[in-house]
Write a structure and sequence with these properties.
Strands 3-4-5-6-7 form a five-stranded antiparallel sheet. A two-stranded antiparallel ribbon has the order 1-2. The protein starts with 6 loop residues before the first helix and ends with a strand. It is α+β, with helices and mostly antiparallel strands.
């Protein structure tokens, strides 16, 4: 007699099915091996919400300049993944993580661009070229997910300003749970989508949820 599948196994099966439909959603239980964090999760009391650090530029008065982008709501408030509503057996945190992280990174980089060049900004375009999503399960029933994101960036300023160079194959990693969002960037060029650096130990707190 076959034993019933565990919730972890079921989640992996559903995530694999989603990968076929979306071309990117992936489950990899080996992604959290070797960590010294309990169950692969960041302790709930590791950060204070007052520690959040992210670009928050002031609106510009120049009509030709770009406007700041609002940071997105966490996925459990939208309950939608890459291809719509999440299955009942997969939490909205896990299923909507890649969409949320992509939107967050767009806001983060655009706002950093505006913070630096202010009214001289003219063009900003972030095109995602790949992603990898790794759900994390724990004995405490807390849910979390790791996301590796790869993208290209096009930026332009007004003609008399110093225009930043376009960037390709940028890779960032995120850790998301029900309380916080951590971000880390890989400082190099790579084609892979490994969760390196690990945002749980090398990331910055960029969002906090009540």
């Amino acid at each position: 007699m076959n034993r019933p599948r565990s919730r972890r196994t079921l989640l992996a099966s559903i995530a694999t099915t989603a990968a076929v439909g979306t071309g990117g959603f992936e489950y990899d239980s080996s992604g959290v091996s070797g960590t010294d964090l309990a169950d692969g999760l960041v302790p709930a009391d590791q950060y204070e919400c007052s520690d959040v650090d992210r670009p928050e530029p002031d609106p510009t008065t120049d009509e030709d300049a770009l406007e700041p982008r609002a940071y997105p709501s966490p996925p459990w408030k939208t309950s939608a993944g890459e291809d719509g509503k999440s299955p009942e057996s997969v939490s909205s945190l896990v299923y909507g993580a890649s969409r949320y992280v992509t939107a967050f990174e767009r806001a983060y980089r655009r706002n950093a661009f505006l913070d630096r060049y202010q009214s001289a900004t003219r063009t900003f375009d972030l095109q995602r070229t790949g992603y990898r999503t790794i759900p994390i399960e724990s004995e405490t029933n807390r849910e979390a997910v790791l996301v590796a994101l790869r993208y290209d960036l096009t930026m332009e300023t007004q003609p008399n300003a110093v225009t930043p160079r376009d960037e390709w194959n940028i890779r960032v990693t995120y850790y998301l749970d029900e309380r916080l969002l951590l971000r880390a960037r890989y400082n190099g060029v790579t084609e892979g989508l490994a969760v390196d650096p690990d945002p749980r130990t090398q990331g910055d707190l960029v969002a906090c949820f009540d």
